[in-house]
Amino acid sequence: MAFLDSIKSRDPAPRSRWEILTYPGVWALAFHRVAHALFGLRLFLMARIVNHVSRLLTAIDIHPGARIGANFFIDHGFVVIGETALIGDNVTIYQCVTLGGTDPANGIAGKRHPTLEDGVIIGSGAQVLGPITVGSRARVGANAVVTRDVPAGATMVGIPARAVPVDAGDYAKPFMPYGTPCAQKFDPETQKIELLRCEIETLRARLDALTTEDADRKAG
Predict the structure, then answer these.
(1) Which of 95, 88, 94 is nearest to 117 (CA)?
(2) pLDDT score for 218
(3) Which of 29, 35, 146, 211 could bond 64 through an S-S bridge, CB–CB 3.0 to 4.6 Å?
(4) What pLDDT was estimated at residue 220?
(5) Dist. CA 70–CA 61, nearest whole Å
């Protein structure tokens, strides 16, 4: 019941606990618990078969070796979680997220996938890659690509992901949908590009005016 209530607190859509039981993320986690137990018993083929069935039914691919804490919630689906991923308690992941692996040149031997600490939120389409750590209560915005460690409490956006300031009122909220405030907040790099574009347009207009003025003067 506590697990279902934790999902209800993060998703206002369901009218009852029974409705939450239809969620693909809930089913994928249940299948994973079975697959992970089989994986721990070194029944690797059986674990893979359970994982394959889960992927067919839910469109969510969680490797049997991944370790997942309490109250994990995948909202919608189409998520990929790699073998050495480590996920803490009360983590939320939205659709089309990948916790992907790389071949580490350093760090823990064999650790190829991310570690998400307690309370992390990963927005839709984000890619978190390699044996990095996303600190507790950190938030990763939609479509961000994270390849470096994320400090606890940070909000990351962009490609590659960078920390951005968040209003204190938003930061203090116990939960923030999609990891970032749902408002017109721009990526700092996008803002810089937009300012440069405006300056270029202004300079172009001044150049056109000077060219026209010079042509008129010569004609006169």
Answers:
(1) 88
(2) 75
(3) 35
(4) 65
(5) 18
Measured from the Cβ of residue 85, the count of other Cβ atoms closer than 10 Å reads: 24
Could you read off the pLDDT of 151-180 as tens digits, one per residue?
998 988 888 888 877 654 555 556 666 666
**Helical pair 44-58 and 24-40, crossing angle rounded to 10 deg:** 170
Strands, sheet with 121-122, edge to edge from the N-terminal-most edge strand: 73-74, 92-93, 121-122, 139-140, 155-157, 162-163
Q: How many residues does the chain have?
A: 220
- pTM, two decimal places: 0.75
Task: Outline where the chain has alpha helix (H).
Answer: 2-10, 17-20, 24-40, 44-58, 168-171, 188-219
Token representation of residue 52: 């394959």
Give which of 88, 41, 89 is closest to 65, Cα–Cα. 41
Contact 157, 179 (CB under 8 A): no
**Looking at residue 61, what DSSP letter applies?**
E
Which tokens belong to 115? Answer: 């570690």
